[in-house]
Amino acid sequence: MILYQTKTSRLSGSSWKEVCPKARRLLHAIEKRTKRQPYIRSAYFKKEKIFINYFWPHLMQKPRRERLERLKILPCAIELIENSHRKPAITISPNKPKEKLYRFAGMTPNQELFFVQIKENKTRAKYFMSIFPSIWFKE
Questions:
Q1: If phi over 0 gives left and psi between -120 and 50 gives alpha, with beta otherwise, what is residue 126?
Q2: CA 74 to CA 14: how far, in whole Å?
Q3: Domain count, the chain
Q4: pLDDT mean values, one per 10 residues, the chain (139 residues)
Q5: Which residues neighbour 66 within 8 Å (Cβ) at sequence distance 6 or greater?
Q6: Which residue of 11, 52, 102, 107 has the fewest CB atoms within a 10 Å radius of its CB?
Q7: Which residues, listed in sequence order, are joined to residue 30 by a DSSP beta bridge?
Q8: Which helix (H) or strand (E) holds 79?
Q9: CB 5 within 8 A of CB 46
């Protein structure tokens, strides 16, 4: 897995009330581009759509402190999805064998390692599932 160096910095803030509105604005700007399911075009997948509607429900399942750290990295993750041509780690989902999980590695401008996970289902639709800093990465 090769790292992608982002130019976009993390969201600033130290509490959920500071970071959440900034992240929602960022996601809302993506949602406003289309009347249907919101998506990001991915450079690695030859400009295929990566749907983002699974991200927020998945994030809300996490503890509050973990949510905050993940949201801070959101702009970096979006840049990585849009611009990275680097090969991800590809695994088969342990729960559903017909699903693939793509895990991209990125580095923020402050040299913080993070990972972006994209799920591909059996119909080959791709969904942006999760972001997490390297401290929570377990392989």
A1: beta
A2: 15
A3: 1
A4: 88 91 93 92 93 92 91 94 92 88 93 93 92 70
A5: 136
A6: 107
A7: none
A8: helix 74-83
A9: no
Cα 137 off chain centre by: 14
Contacts of 30 (CB under 8 A, 6+ apart): 38, 39, 40, 52, 78
CA distance 82 to 44: 8
Cα–Cα distance, 99 to 90 (Å, whole number): 11
Q: What is the C-alpha to C-alpha distance for residues 54 and 51, in angstroms, rounded to an integer?
A: 8
Pairing of strands 4-5, 100-107: parallel
Find how far residue 22's CA is from the centre of its chain: 16
Q: How far apart are the first and last CA of the chain?
A: 13
Distance CA 101, CA 138 (A): 14
